[in-house]
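step: validate -> pass
step: tokenize input -> pass
step: predict -> running
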Amino acid sequence: MRIALLDDDPRENENLYGLINAYALRRKYDVVCETFTSGKELLRHDRFDLYFLDYVMDEMDGVAVGRALHEKYSGAVTICYLTGIEGVASEIINAEIGAVGFLTKPVSEELLYKKLDKFYNASFGGHLQFKKGRVTETVYAREIFYAEAADKRTRIHFRLGEETYHHSFSETERILSAYPSFFRIHRSYIVNMLHVKAYDAKSVMMESGDVLPLKAKDFAKIYRSFIFNETK
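step: predict -> pass
step: emit ->
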């Protein structure tokens, strides 16, 4: 798991860096942190799995950096804001719906660990197993963009390709139902709402650029509820 820390106060970066590395050692996770004091410097780097962004900075504030990251990676970023300002939480959540929430400074070890546990479990802890003939493959739930019915089998689409597995579509739906991010939008499609870029009354666009037909009338309500809960 790659984590970026952005704060224009090097002492705050150092403190959070130490807490996250202690977390990695305690959980025995493979975590790599990089610290930045400038939003422009951060934006020149490749995508990280998780971003901690200071809300208030002189040159380029955290919300501006967050918006730039969303635009650069078509929304495929996970952000947690850091703030020392009382009552700013609702403003952050409303400003950037793509954020997973906020932490107040100085950062509490307990709250940080809860946030990291939630992110890790959602992103890397969700193992799913699918069969291809006599072989069983394991994938992370977060890697799946959407599932598509393919005769008596199921085609799973990922960011960089697709695989066809020996499961009926109804069986695949049962497997995916263990994770709240998956929702059936059509008799032939189940999407991972973590990777939905946009939607209208008739279609859903994924971050991959694929446009899928939308038949579920309650999708907008379900999607908004899911995204809101993710930001808590």
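step: describe -> The first strand starts at residue 2 and ends at 6.
step: cleanup -> pass
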